[in-house]
Amino acid sequence: CRRANPGSGPRVCGAVERSHAHGPDPRKLEPLATLRTARELSVQAFIFFALAVTTLLFTPGPTNTLLAASGAAVGLRRSLHLLIAEAAGYLTVALVLGTLAISWLHERAELTRWMQIAAAIYLVVLAVRLWRYPMAEGGSLVSFGQMWLTTLLNPKAAIVALVLLPPLGSQRGFGFLFLASMIPIAGAVWI
Questions:
Q1: Over the range 3-19, which residues count as b (16 or more CB within 10 Å of their CB) and which as e?
Q2: I want to staple 73 with a disulfide (CB 3.0 to 4.6 A). Which of 58, 78, 141, 175 is the partner?
Q3: Is the pTM of this model over 0.70?
Q4: d(Cα 99, Cα 179) in Å, to the nearest integer?
Q5: DSSP per-residue codes, 130-183
Q6: What is the pLDDT of residues 117-152, one digit of tens each?
Q7: CB 152 within 8 A of CB 66
Q8: Confidence of residue 2 (pLDDT cuts 50, 70, 90)
């Protein structure tokens, strides 16, 4: 035992030694607990992102309809190049809309509305084309450009870019990587 102040004051008998005898100082562990909690939240957020993206990519929509129509018309092998166009469309939207234009578009709600109208008109025209015009003999029903543009205008691509992709940081990189790996898997199932 020793005195807190030599010559006066109460005696302190091993209080400091005892706190270290039963483990580390809890105040020193707070940053570690916070880091662990942040990692757990990051893992949970990524799992949510992965499930949401997977569900969205497998859900019927304009892009998947074109893939299925092409697969039915010309087969898997002759439709595989469309997976590259699909991936390019989704990743273009994710990079441009999700990274560069998100704040710019929030300030211009009217422009966003016109973009939605233009996309809807294109999708209706594409649906009518698929419904009315038969495929040319030996030709492809869907071109690379049509697939890319359809995916670019697909509302699901905007949802991925504006809602699902994690904010800037290392998780965004993992998000892009996961998205890029899931697009051809889901697309191939539709073909």
A1: eeeeeeeeeeeeeeeee
A2: 141
A3: no
A4: 15
A5: HHHSPPPTT--SS-HHHHHHHHHH-HHHHHIIIIISPPSSHHHHHHHHHHHHHH
A6: 877 787 777 777 766 665 555 556 789 999 999 999
A7: no
A8: low
Query: pLDDT class for 54, splitting at 50, 70, 90?
Result: very high
Cβ–Cβ under 8 Å, residues 156 and 63: yes
Instruction: Report the alpha-carbon distance of residue 139 to residue 131 in Å, rounded.
Output: 16
Q: Which amino acid appears at position 94 of this protein?
A: A
Tokens of 76: 């898997």
- Tokens 């939207």 — which residue? 93
Please give the pLDDT value at position 27.
57
Contact 180, 88 (CB under 8 A): no
- Which of 155, 177, 131 lies closest to 60, judged by CA? 155
- Quick check: 89 and 147 in contact, CB under 8 A? yes
